[in-house]
Amino acid sequence: MKSYFSTSYKQDVNGYVEILVQIIKMMNMNASNSEVNDFLFEVGVNLANQHSVKAADTLSALHVEINEILSKLGFGVCQIEDANNRVIIKHHDLPVIEDREFKDKWLQYFSVIMCGLYNCWFRQTGAPAELICRIKEIISPCDAVFEFKRA
Question: pTM for this one?
Answer without folding.
Answer: 0.88
